[in-house]
Design goal:
The complex is a heterodimer of chains A (227) and B (836). By secondary structure, chain A is of the alpha/beta class. Chain A has helices at 46-53, 76-86, 102-112, 119-128, 144-157, 174-190, 202-206; strands at residues 2-13, 20-31, 35-40, 61-66, 69-70, 87-90, 162-166, 194-198, 210-215, 218-224. The chains are: A alpha/beta (227), B alpha+beta (836).
Chain lengths: 227, 836
């Protein structure tokens, strides 16, 4: 079943002579439980695609359907709520709130949603991501790898159906990168989640179920990885 | 761009909004300092003018100068103006209810003292005289120029053996002019009549002629020093020197430091520097990346610092003159709109000093403010600045766990985050909270001063109500019937009735029973007075005292003057228990002492002397002030009795004074007519209407209020400016964080709540400290001024505290409106990309 679908998705920045077409009529689908890697050169439109799919930006044209729901017909408030319930984001620079502890950062989306915290689930996440003993630390007391694992836990905390990751290991060295990626893969398998990840790293891309390659705002290849 | 410094101007031009904001901040601060300066100078000028109008334009008087010294003084380079006074004597009438002195003045003195004519001209020669209008009326002299009348005049003098003598004579005078009444002359029954100096020379024996010289020192010289110098040069005894102390005090020549003003200026300076600091700090933070870029292409830290200082200098160049102008316009508007009738400051005085001080302070504030941000900017590491800004601006975190769980349960996670965000940059938050706290402190302190200066109380102290009917000389008194008539009039709120006998008692004392200072004062000053009864009675010294009989109402309101003992009205009614007023030299009596007086008794109707008796009074309490001023003071301590006891001892039924308060909004004219009717039953009775004084006081109070409120508003504005800047800065630094928060699904409402809470917390913390410090400070002020301002009362300023809390919270929340708009307008992707 397609969990995510984009139709004719386009994004133009600026207008007139200085306008830049970052994305051109992209049709793209992701199945439930799939791990899709998005690759492409700098400026090919990867991040734009990810942001549009995740409802962070507004497309110039086209639509994005998540669970058959056109997310850009939602009001700003409903879109915010939809995002925090259905989507998880992981960024290259972790983007943790520096004044909150690791555990608080992880539970933040739940708290924003006014939901009660499923303690067992959070503990399980902490153990799976091997940050249980760091949960009371502030981000400044965590290493890069640990911070990114907290960010992953945060993305998983609301049990979203899709996780978007923008070069989650781009800022980590290779050993820690593979460790973090392993944990991410284990997690999404365990909780039956869908993952769309931008990466520069071919090796990382090869671990996905499918690799989508972008160039000049267009998908130029869409290949299932044979393992 | 010819020089790298050109970048500064390019930036200023590009970031117009920020530049405008910075300019506005400096303008506001400089305007504040300027207006305080102009206000201060104008008020001082107004007060000096008032003293000059009242006392005349002279710095001092040298008595008994000879012509040689006068001509030295006239030619002295340090002396600008000299006026000569030669007293002739007093107009000697059988009726002693008025004191009329006749003096010869030269033109200079008339101008210096500021007397003016209503009619006619000044006296030249030939027994020409000028009188005050009210005196003509009182003496039933036709106010026609050319009118002639004969006056007896007398003059007391010390003869060669040191004994007091009296010179008496008479002369025919010709009225050549009518002077404007001197203020208070009628109420105190004293009047000045002017003749020419030549007339005095003609009418007095040469040995009695003396010249007193009033002088005004050149503006370029220090008054006090010059006064001493002149005294030494001319070899004048201290006894013959009278400095115009009221003027010297007003001019600030009395070496006293004005702490409240200095305190105020320091607060304003701190708030100002804080505001400008914040502005520059934020503008540097906004450009951190730019500085990183500059550093990466090889700009040295020194060059970056130089760029910022250039920027500050340039901004100062524009904003300081505008600030001074705005301050000028602001204070001018306030002064001219508020003192149409008010005479505290009726002229806007702008001195060079104020302009220079404001400029220097503004410039200094800018440079102090730039110093830190410039250091920060010059230290930016190129890589860090371009990559990740939070790495450059190291942020502290707090660990006050207890608070956090409370906030969490109160406001949810957004509340907790908001509170912690407050402390991410401690220094900046402290500056912001500090400036707001200052606003709160000022508000509480000024409202305390305002409310403690209870208007009714001041009126009570100085005016005793709306009207006074008074007779302070002679034997005639108002009757109980008069009192009842007034009490029964419509619209009367309260009447306080006072019995009085000037010089009614003679204090009898032995050498050993009083203070040595008092004895010295008695022997050296009092016994030497002309006509003073030097005889001892029964071997004891005598000293005249004024005696008052207060009614219950008056006695119940004079607690504030009580220094020792207590006021037991019930006992005072029945027993010879008195309150002693020590206003000159303390004789050293204590509460509980019994002192003897000799009392002369007079017939109630005819005023004939009946005989003497001795009374013994116990001192129940000691007062430090004459609660009711009857316009005459004897040399001895004042005695206050209950009116019943007064009647028993002195056998006086009548009243000498009624202080009348009326209900608000009654027809004054009707009451005034009736009261004047009662007053005029006794020819020497005086009717005083305090409406003008009351209005003047009200106006002054209103003006002070408006001044204080404007000050609080401007300081509040600077505080507001600070919070806006701080919150904006905080938000700029956290742009990416907001992007992330929105990405993980924070709604605009939640974001708004968080940012608003942040503003609110600034308000709450400022209100907390402001309330505590303001309360403490108001109490300290109360302790400091309690002695001088007896009407002051202190209680916890609850209303101001509530006002401060509500005000700061509103200001805090309002301050987030602008930055919030900025966050909304930012696209999530942009915010995240902003740094990635």
């Amino acid at each position: 079943m397609d969990i995510l679908k984009s139709e004719n998705l386009s994004k133009t920045y600026g207008s007139g002579e200085i306008s830049v077409e970052a994305l051109k009529n992209v049709d793209f689908t992701v199945k439930e439980g799939e791990f899709v890697a998005v690759v492409g050169a700098s400026g090919s439109g990867k991040s734009t695609l990810l942001h549009l799919l995740g409802g962070l930006d507004k497309p110039t044209n086209g639509k994005v359907l998540i669970n058959d729901r056109d997310i850009y017909t939602l009001k700003e408030k409903d879109l915010s709520i939809f995002r925090r319930r259905e989507i998880g984001f992981i960024f290259q620079f972790y983007n943790l709130v520096p004044v909150l502890t690791a555990k608080e950062n992880i539970t933040l989306p739940l708290l924003l949603d006014g939901r009660t915290i499923d303690k067992d689930y959070i503990d399980e996440l902490l153990s799976t991501l091997k940050i249980k003993d760091r949960k009371e630390h502030l981000p400044s007391a965590l290493s890069g790898g640990q911070q990114q694992r907290v960010a992953i836990a945060r993305a998983l905390a609301t049990k979203p159906s899709i996780i978007f990751a923008d070069e989650p290991t781009g800022n980590l060295d290779s050993k820690i990168s593979s460790e973090v990626l392993d944990l991410l893969r284990i997690s999404i398998k365990k909780y039956h989640q869908t993952l769309v990840m931008i990466t520069h790293d071919e090796e990382v891309a090869k671990t996905a179920d499918r690799i989508v390659t972008l160039e000049d705002g267009k998908i130029i290849s869409n290949e299932v990885v044979v393992k | 761009m010819r020089k790298y410094n050109g970048l500064t101007f390019k930036y200023l031009n590009k970031q117009r909004q920020r530049t405008a904001l910075t300019l506005l901040g400096i303008i506001l601060s400089v305007a504040l300092i300027t207006s305080i300066g102009i206000f201060g100078e104008s008020i001082k000028h107004g007060m000096v003018q008032q003293v000059l109008d009242l006392n005349g334009k002279y710095h001092g008087v040298f008595d008994n100068l000879d012509d040689k010294d006068i001509s030295i003084l006239k030619k002295h380079t340090k002396v600008k103006n000299v006026g000569i006074q030669t007293p002739l004597g007093g107009y000697n009438r059988d009726d002693s209810s008025l004191t009329i002195s006749i003096e010869g003045w030269d033109k200079n003195l008339i101008n210096m003292i500021g007397r003016s004519l209503v009619k006619g001209r000044w006296p030249k020669d030939n027994n020409e005289i000028v009188l005050e209008g009210w005196l003509l009326e009182q003496l039933n002299i036709e106010p026609t120029i050319g009118n002639k009348f004969t006056w007896k005049y007398d003059r007391t003098y010390l003869d060669e053996e040191g004994k007091w003598n009296n010179f008496e004579s008479e002369a025919e005078f010709t009225l050549v002019g009518i002077m404007k009444d001197s203020p208070g002359g009628k109420a105190t029954g004293s009047s000045l009549s002017l003749v020419s100096i030549n007339t005095v020379k003609k009418l007095l024996p040469k040995s009695l002629l003396n010249k007193n010289v009033f002088f005004w020192i050149n503006d370029d010289y220090k008054i006090k020093d010059t006064l001493n110098e002149l005294q030494n040069n001319l070899n004048i005894d201290d006894d013959n020197v009278r400095a115009n102390y009221q003027l010297l005090n007003t001019l600030g020549e009395n070496d006293k430091v004005n702490f409240p003003i200095i305190f105020l200026i320091i607060i304003v300076l701190i708030a100002t520097v804080g505001a400008i600091y914040n502005i520059f700090h934020i503008s540097v933070i906004e450009r951190i990346k730019e500085f990183g870029t500059l550093r990466s292409i090889g700009t040295t830290p020194k060059q970056i610092k130089k760029m910022l200082f250039t920027e500050g200098f340039f901004l100062s160049l524009i904003s300081i003159p505008i600030g001074i102008l705005v301050g000028f316009i602001f204070s001018r508007l306030l002064i001219s709109n508020l003192s149409i009738v008010n005479n505290v400051a009726n002229e806007v005085v702008v001195s060079f000093k104020v302009i220079i001080t404001s400029s220097i302070v503004g410039l200094l504030a800018v440079f102090i403010s730039i110093y830190n941000p410039a250091r920060l900017a010059s230290k930016v590491s190129p890589i860090e600045a371009m990559g990740n800004d939070s790495a450059v601006l190291k942020e502290g975190t707090t660990k006050k766990r207890k608070w956090h769980s409370l906030l969490n349960s109160l406001f949810g996670i957004t509340g907790k985050m908001a509170y912690q965000n407050l402390w991410r940059n401690k220094k900046r938050s402290v500056v912001t909270i500090f400036s707001m706290t200052l606003g709160c402190i000022l508000f509480i302190v000024f409202s305390f001063i305002n409310s403690s200066a209870d208007f009714d109380n001041i009126l009570d102290d100085y005016l005793h109500g709306d009207y006074t009917i008074m007779v302070n000389r002679g034997m005639e008194k108002y009757s109980l019937k008069d009192l009842e008539n007034i009490n029964n009039m419509e619209g009367i709120k309260e009447v306080k009735a006072i019995k009085f006998r000037g010089f009614g008692f003679n204090l009898m004392f032995n050498e050993g029973k009083v203070n040595s200072d008092f004895l010295k004062y008695y022997k050296e000053e009092i016994l030497k007075l002309p006509h003073y009864n030097q005889e001892k009675k029964n071997g004891q010294y005598l000293l005249e005292s004024d005696v008052f009989g207060y009614d219950d109402k008056t006695l119940s309101k004079i607690d504030k003057y009580l220094e020792k003992g207590n006021i037991d009205i019930k006992r005072m009614k029945e027993k010879p228990l008195a309150l002693l007023i020590n206003s000159r030299v303390d004789p050293g009596y204590r509460v509980g002492d019994k002192i003897k007086f000799n009392v002369s008794l007079f017939d109630n109707d005819e005023g004939e002397y009946i005989g003497d008796k001795e009374v013994k009074l116990e001192i129940g309490g000691i007062l430090n002030f004459y609660p009711v001023n009857m316009g005459t003071y004897s040399m001895g301590p004042g005695i206050v009795l209950h009116e019943d006891m007064f009647k028993d001892i002195l056998e006086i039924n009548g009243y000498s004074r009624f202080d009348i308060s009326i209900e608000p909004k009654v027809k004054r004219e009707k009451i005034e007519n009736k009261l004047e009717g009662i007053t005029n039953k006794i020819p020497r009775g005086t009717f005083i209407d305090y409406e003008k004084e009351k209005k003047l006081l009200q106006k002054q109070k209103r003006q002070i209020n408006i001044m204080v409120i404007s000050l609080i508003i401007v300081i509040g504005l600077i505080g507001f400016f600070n919070i806006v800047n701080t919150i904006t800065t905080n938000l700029i630094i956290r742009t990416r964080e907001f992007g992330m928060l929105r990405a993980i699904g924070i709604t605009n409402k939640q974001l708004k709540k968080m940012v608003r809470l942040e503003g609110m917390f600034y308000g709450i913390i400022s209100a907390f400290w402001g309330s505590i410090l303001g309360t403490i400070l108001s109490y300290i002020l109360y302790l400091l001024f309690k002695q001088e301002a007896t009407y002051m009362k202190w209680s916890t300023p609850l209303i101001s505290i509530i006002g401060v809390c509500v005000g700061t919270i509103i200001v805090g929340v309002l301050a987030t409106l602008i930055p919030l708009k900025r966050i909304y307008s930012m696209n999530i992707v942009e915010s995240i990309r902003n740094v990635e």
